[in-house]
Amino acid sequence: MKQFLLNPDGCLPPGVDEAALIADEVRLVLPMQRPIPAPGYSVQETEPVLGEDGKWRQAWAEVPDLAPLVPPVPRAVSLRQAREILIEHQLLDAVEAAIASIADPTERRKAANYWEYSQEVERGHPMVADMAAALGLNELQIDEMFRAAAAL
After folding, report:
1. 63: enclosing H helix or E strand
2. Do 104 and 146 belong to one domain?
3. Is 70 contained in some domain?
């Protein structure tokens, strides 16, 4: 059903034909102050409520805030999870080749040591950024791979 929100004083704005609204079965709705929601909630307008006096009043409802649609990026995943997600994306060989191609022998051995012996792969570790660059992956792709790996 159509509705028309009246002025705060309950009157129609000048020039609005009340008879025409009633003939079109438009509800004349008294505005009500929007409540302040409790922490973790928002306020949404609902269907108007018919009062005992026969007047329609604007109505509000508190609803819990929705959780973020995108889950947070894990701080780290196990080495097994990291390797499995790379296998799924056919990138494991490319990571190993990128490590082997590091020019500086000390940096190459440090990267190989991290890749072979770490218990987990940290999202913020410099090697993750270096491997992403070597593989042509952007930050969003790496974040999504970490989310997917955490679910394995």
Report:
1. strand 56-64
2. yes
3. no
